[in-house]
Design the sequence.
């Protein structure tokens, strides 16, 4: 989604005029060490991260540079409020075993592999070259010599996992209610839904692809890939340390996104509360939104800005001067008409027009080649986290789907909904353990 902040089809969440931007942090890439922390050492790193979080009230899982690792263990999963990395490999799996014990075993194996991969290590004990020459390697090897690159792996469970196969039906959260059908969407079932998703984010695309490839390899015979998506050029900032990026329509995207520094907003609108297995978790919505790039590129600048309700260059709300200025929806121009029209994206997506609904957006641009007519198959892979989609994503998207002028240039072709459990506490824990207790 885009706001003149540029949230293509889902924007303007958490208006805070005082936010500033800083240059994004970078760092020289060091060679990946082929040795690393043992389970006890990684657990110690996790314990330190948890202690730091308790002082700051909210997790600030981040690397010092783009080559460094992000802590894996903690109260919440990394890859949510972690400063958004540059690259994405997202995958949705279907579970093909009907044995609960095998699913639990897979989650344990995946967690152990994820703990290693996110720290810049190989997926298995013997790695890509250290095992028996007669056996398949424990790691596929394409990330040998590469640093951790800020890799995070975030898991979620789809509504379809809570059927009769694994005895989980009674544990399906109310907030994991199926999304309604929105006006105008053209969803393709083959690239929607899924029993389990894994979001891999990193600053190096090869590191992200390597992680997903190895999880799929470990899951052979228990899960199958339903669909996947590569993304580049993040379309939102999740930290004030990050500059605001642009989407493929050329507008700044994510200006007023919730940030990891917004402790109160995160408590109120991001993390699930209560005493069930989702406490400390959150809910993820994904939407693949294709843009009609060629039509958009022939649209006048004034019309583009009117559609978003923002200046294309500076990102300021129309009628204001700076990107982080609060939109004034009542301000009128010399002609007596509102600067920000009734069908402008920034107005329709703003919390003040959606019952104070807030999302933490974490989307990416995508280009999947071209179609048979020579048009770019490109757009936004939208990802948003929230405490409850019924009171956050659903009302905002309903408003946009009915009224947004941007709808002439976009179409939703894929959708996903997932319950993301809380973080893994230590080396004895695993993804979703409380769900299967």
Sequence:
């Amino acid at each position: 989604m885009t706001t003149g902040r540029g949230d293509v089809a889902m924007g303007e969440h958490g208006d805070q005029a005082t936010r500033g931007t800083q240059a994004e942090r970078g760092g020289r890439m060091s060679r990946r060490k082929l040795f690393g922390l043992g389970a006890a050492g990684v657990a110690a790193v996790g314990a330190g991260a948890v202690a730091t979080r308790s002082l700051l009230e909210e997790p600030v899982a981040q690397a010092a540079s783009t080559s460094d690792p992000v802590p894996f263990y903690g109260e919440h999963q990394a890859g949510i409020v972690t400063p958004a990395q540059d690259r994405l490999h997202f995958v949705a799996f279907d579970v093909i075993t009907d044995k609960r014990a095998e699913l639990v075993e897979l989650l344990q194996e995946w967690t152990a592999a994820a703990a290693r991969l996110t720290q810049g290590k190989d997926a298995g004990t013997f790695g890509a070259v250290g095992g028996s020459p007669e056996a398949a390697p424990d790691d596929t090897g394409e990330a040998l010599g590469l640093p951790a690159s800020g890799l995070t792996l975030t898991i979620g469970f789809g509504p379809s996992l809570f059927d009769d196969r694994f005895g989980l039906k009674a544990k399906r959260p109310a907030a994991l209610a199926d999304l309604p059908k929105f006006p105008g969407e053209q969803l393709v079932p083959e690239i929607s839904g899924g029993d389990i998703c894994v979001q891999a984010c990193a600053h190096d695309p090869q590191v992200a692809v390597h992680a997903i490839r190895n999880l799929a390899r470990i899951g052979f015979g228990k899960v199958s890939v339903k669909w996947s998506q590569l993304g580049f050029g993040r379309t939102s900032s999740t930290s004030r340390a990050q500059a605001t990026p642009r989407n493929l329509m050329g507008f700044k995207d994510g200006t007023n996104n919730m940030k990891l520094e917004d402790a109160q907003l995160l408590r109120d609108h991001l993390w699930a509360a209560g005493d069930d297995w989702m406490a400390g978790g959150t809910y993820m919505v994904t939407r693949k939104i294709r843009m009609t790039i060629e039509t958009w590129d022939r649209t006048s600048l004034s019309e583009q800005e009117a559609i978003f309700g923002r200046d294309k260059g500076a990102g300021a709300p129309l009628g204001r001067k700076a990107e982080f200025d609060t939109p004034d929806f009542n301000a009128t121009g010399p002609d007596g008409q509102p600067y920000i029209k009734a069908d402008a994206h920034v107005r329709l997506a703003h919390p003040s027009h959606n019952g104070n609904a807030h999302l933490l957006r974490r989307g990416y641009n995508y280009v999947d080649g071209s179609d048979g007519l020579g048009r770019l198959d490109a757009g936004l892979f939208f990802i948003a986290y929230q405490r409850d989609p019924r009171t956050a994503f659903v009302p905002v998207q309903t408003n946009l789907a009915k009224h947004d002028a941007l709808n002439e240039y976009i179409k939703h072709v894929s959708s996903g909904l997932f319950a993301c459990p809380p973080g893994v506490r230590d080396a004895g824990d695993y993804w979703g353990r409380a769900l299967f207790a």
Remarks:
- The two ends are 38 Å apart (CA to CA).
- The chain has one domain: 71-112+155-436.
- Confidence is low (pLDDT under 50) at residues 1-9, 11-60.
- The longest strand covers residues 223-234.
